[in-house]
Design goal:
The protein is built from 4 helices and 7 strands, in the order αβββββββααα. The longest helix is centred in the first third of the chain and has 16 residues, at 26-41. It is an alpha+beta fold. It has a single domain, classed as Peptide deformylase (Peptide Deformylase, Alpha-Beta Complex).
């Protein structure tokens, strides 16, 4: 296993809608293992493929880290089918280091996805697990949690976000 480079705010791969995965390949299992290793090394709970520079509809989550005991999961081609309720909660992101803000998300979601064996699954998530999945789903669609802040809150972060963009440009 190896640790992958986490792309930060400003990296072009993070601002696009990723491509769907059409079939399981031998490489996919290694990618998933490397993504978990990277996520753990960065103290994350979830990680999307584009955060490590891969243009594919894939994210991983270890719900055990959030004390929800739902285990480690792989989500391929995830779609949010239904949203219910509202919940304000603090979020951070490996691609937006050193910024944490409260974001409004649906309290309950119903999703459809394929697992690592390409089995199609529908599940519901409530509370913090629903928040994590919405955060990762946003990544796969080129949206950052800071994009969900009010214009006023985002203006307070403008200089920090600009600094991250400059760092991202320098790393390319």
């Amino acid at each position: 296993m190896s640790i992958l480079k986490v792309h930060i705010y400003g990296s072009p791969i993070l601002s696009k809608i990723v491509d769907p995965i059409l079939k399981i390949t031998d490489d996919l299992h290694k990618i998933v293992d490397d993504m978990f290793e990277t996520m753990y090394s960065e103290d994350g709970i979830g990680l999307s493929a584009n955060q490590v520079g891969l243009d594919m509809s894939l994210c991983i989550v270890d719900f055990n880290l959030a004390e929800d005991k739902l285990g480690k999961k792989v989500f391929i081609n995830m779609e949010i089918l239904e949203k219910e309720g509202e919940c304000l909660g603090e979020e951070g992101c490996l691609s937006v280091p050193d910024i944490r803000e409260k974001v409004n998300r649906a309290k309950k979601i119903k999703i459809k996805y394929q697992d690592i064996n390409f089995n199609e699954i529908e599940e519901e998530y409530i509370g913090f697990p629903a928040r994590v999945l919405q955060h990762e789903y946003d990544h796969l669609h080129g949206i950052f949690f800071v994009d969900r802040l009010s214009p006023l809150k985002k203006s307070f972060l403008k200089s920090k976000l600009k600094r991250l963009q400059e760092l991202s440009i320098n790393e390319q």
